[in-house]
Specification:
Distance between the termini of chain B: 57 Å
Radius of gyration of chain B: 62 Å
CATH architecture of chain A: 3-Layer(aba) Sandwich
Strand order of the largest sheet of chain A: 2-1-3-4-5
CATH superfamily of the largest domain in chain B: PAS domain
Order of helices and strands of chain A: EHEHEHEHEHH
Helix content of chain B: 55-70%
Number of domains of chain B: 3
CATH architecture of the largest domain in chain B: 2-Layer Sandwich
CATH class of the largest domain in chain B: Alpha Beta
CATH topology of the largest domain in chain B: Beta-Lactamase
Largest sheet of chain B: 5 strands, antiparallel
Number of helices of chain A: 6
Shape of chain A: globular
Order of helices and strands of chain B: HHHHEEEEEHHHEHEEHEEHEE
Number of strands of chain A: 5
Radius of gyration of chain A: 15 Å
Oligomer: heterodimer
Number of helices of chain B: 10
Shape of chain B: rod-shaped
Chain lengths: 149, 484
């Protein structure tokens, strides 16, 4: 279990609340840090601006990144993250709405690890977390005993 | 005439001038020679006749006294006239010569004087015969016949012919020179006009002008030609301007259209993203109320919240379908060889996977292909077969059939089912967006699927139509012509 935070980059209040609710229901106890736009997200990740002084060597366990954001888009944030040594390997799950299917290929090209369709439901997030090998990191549940043991 | 057609206009003018000159000169020469011949013969005849009268008069007394010697001497006086070859005096009623004269001495043969000679001068081919009766006091004593040769006339005619020929040749040469000059004066502007016309025609250069000519018809023609060139040049430049203007307008329209397309895309994105956000909130928080506050809600309260969630789900589906319709219109059409049977088969597999409880017999005719956009064709079959699947939901022996049948030059694909069917009276409402022939309670749907299908078929240049009978089933036909 890790106490490293999850960074949620989302400008819609309802979606923030619903996502936090879904994570909580899923017994994910990692603290959730919310950034309302792309600039704020980058400030948090690199310890600049409003987050000046934060230790940028400590990166969130996963970044949930909305594609459509004010100021800098999710794709811009992702590009900046992948250009920087400190955030190059941080897992990023893109949050998409249904018509952004065309964008998904582009997000993979830019180095996204997975995507989840909004609203973030537990099942969808679990699939993404499993793909990323984060399952045991983010889920505060004891591993089920393997069959046959 | 055919040869004349091949000549240049200069050569033609020259030919006409020369032919006219030759005709005139030759006619004049012939007339002159004929007149001269006539005159000289007249004059010769008159001369010989005078001689004959004088000699005849002088021969009266020798004939009276039968003095042949004197008669011969009198005849010898004819030597003064070199043209006279021979002369003979015959007594009246006597055929033998009384006296004779021969210019070149007595001939070897008997001179061929005819027995009877008409009085007066008579021209033969090479000589002139003049017969003069010799009378004394009205009584005929005999006849004097003089033969003159025509060497003088011949010589004179030869000389004249030579002069005429020389004059003719000289005149013709002169005429040739003058005609050449004149023809050139006439033909040069025409030739230049022709050159100009050829330049205009071959190089499409309407700025050239023919050199202005004189005040004759050719000058008028050149003037008119230049005026026509003015008009053509004006129209040509107008046309060019119009084309440039048109291109500019097309460019502007294309740009506007691209902008409009981009705006539409942004609009679709916003619709999808921003319209869905409040729906997510409605659905998410309804669900939160249902889970977190379940004990405080009675059955009716829960039912209402479930209705709220069903409504948001349906609206979400509507948004998805509308965006799908918009995307179908926007997407670039990429035609390639599409395996229609394979596409229909895959759609059937997916339909069965989504509703494993349904028992539907699907028959797809094997080997169907089309020159079409495979992605869009998949959407067509998803909708048509999805509909067939849906509307056979209340049939025990549901059957969906996909095939192809002859339909004029372009064969039509069809999707047939034995489901709820429809009333042919409303067949025209089938393909309108949001148009439905069944209630939501009977068969769910947004009414956008067939509108999407129709748009895809239309983009392929094809046609779609349907046949149906209530409760017996429906058949949807469509063509995908490459060249509509």
């Amino acid at each position: 279990m890790s106490s490293r935070p999850i960074l949620l980059v989302e400008d819609n209040h309802d979606d923030v609340e619903l996502t936090v609710m879904a994570l909580k229901e899923s017994k994910i106890t990692n603290p959730v840090v919310v950034a309302r736009n792309g600039v704020e997200a980058l400030d948090y990740l690199f310890g600049t601006g409003a987050h000046a002084g934060r230790d940028a060597s400590s990166q969130p366990v996963v970044v949930l990144l909305d594609i459509k954001l004010p100021l800098l888009s999710g794709l811009d944030v992702l590009r900046r993250m992948r250009e920087d040594e400190r955030t190059r390997r941080t897992p990023v799950v893109m949050l998409t709405s249904s018509d952004e299917r065309d964008h998904i290929a582009a997000t993979y090209d830019l180095g996204a690890n997975s995507y989840v369709r909004k609203p973030v439901e537990f099942e969808g997030f679990v699939v993404a977390a499993r793909q990323l090998g984060l399952y045991w990191t983010v889920l505060n549940e004891p591993p089920e005993p393997a069959p046959g043991r | 005439m055919r040869i004349l057609g091949r000549l240049t206009i200069g050569q033609k003018l020259l030919s006409i001038a020369m032919l006219s000159s030759i005709t005139a000169l030759v006619s004049a020469s012939i007339a002159f020679l004929a007149y001269d011949l006539h005159t000289i013969r007249q004059s010769l005849a008159r001369r010989i006749l005078t001689d004959a009268q004088i000699v005849g008069f002088n021969s009266v007394s020798p004939l009276l006294f039968n003095d042949a010697e004197t008669a011969t001497t009198t005849l010898g006086g004819l030597r003064a006239e070199p043209a006279i070859v021979a002369a003979i005096i015959r007594g009246q009623g006597d055929t033998r010569p009384f006296a004779t004269y021969f210019r070149d001495g007595p001939p070897a043969a008997r001179p061929s004087f005819p027995e009877q000679v008409a009085p007066g001068p008579v021209f033969a081919a090479d000589h002139l015969l003049v017969s003069e009766p010799i009378r004394f006091e009205g009584r005929p004593l005999g006849t004097l016949v003089i033969q003159a040769d025509l060497a003088e006339i011949r010589n004179r005619q030869h000389r004249y012919a030579g002069i005429v020929l020389a004059v003719l040749a000289g005149s013709l040469l002169l005429a040739l020179g003058i005609s050449r000059l004149m023809a050139k004066t006439i033909s040069r502007p025409i030739v230049r006009l022709a050159d100009t016309a050829r330049t205009v025609s071959s190089q499409k250069d309407y700025t050239v002008r023919a050199e202005p000519g004189g005040r004759d018809e050719v000058g008028l023609l050149i003037g008119t030609f230049n005026e026509m060139l003015d008009q053509i040049q004006r129209q040509d430049s107008d046309l060019k301007e119009a084309r440039v203007d048109l291109e500019r307008r097309v460019e502007t329209r294309t740009r506007d259209l691209a902008t409009a397309n981009k705006e539409l895309e942004a609009f679709s994105y916003s619709v999808s993203h921003d319209l869905r956000a409040p729906l997510r909130a409605i659905d998410g928080f309804s669900k939160a109320v249902l889970t977190d506050y379940s004990p405080q809600l009675d059955e009716r309260g829960r039912h209402y919240l479930e209705r709220v969630r069903a409504g948001t789900l349906r609206m979400s589906q509507l948004i998805d379908d509308l965006l799908g319709l918009a995307r179908v219109s926007r997407r670039e059409l990429v035609r390639k060889r599409a395996d229609v049977s394979d596409i229909a088969g895959q759609v059937a597999v997916e339909l069965a996977r989504r509703q494993p409880s349904r028992q539907v017999r699907v028959e797809v005719q094997p080997g169907l292909t089309a020159e079409a956009d495979p992605h869009l064709l998949t959407i067509v079959f998803e909708n048509l077969m999805g509909n067939a699947w849906k509307f056979t939901g209340k049939k025990a022996d549901a059957c969906v059939e996909v095939g192809q049948q002859a339909n004029g030059p372009a064969p039509a694909f069809y999707v047939r089912d034995n489901g709820a069917g429809f009333d042919m009276e409303y067949a025209d409402k089938l393909f309108g967006a949001f148009q439905r022939l069944h209630t939501e309670a009977d068969f769910e749907g947004t009414g956008i699927g067939l509108a999407t299908v129709q748009r895809i078929v239309a983009r392929h240049g094809g046609r779609i139509w349907a046949e149906g009978t209530v409760n017996k089933g429906a058949t949807f036909y469509f063509t995908l012509e490459r060249n509509p």
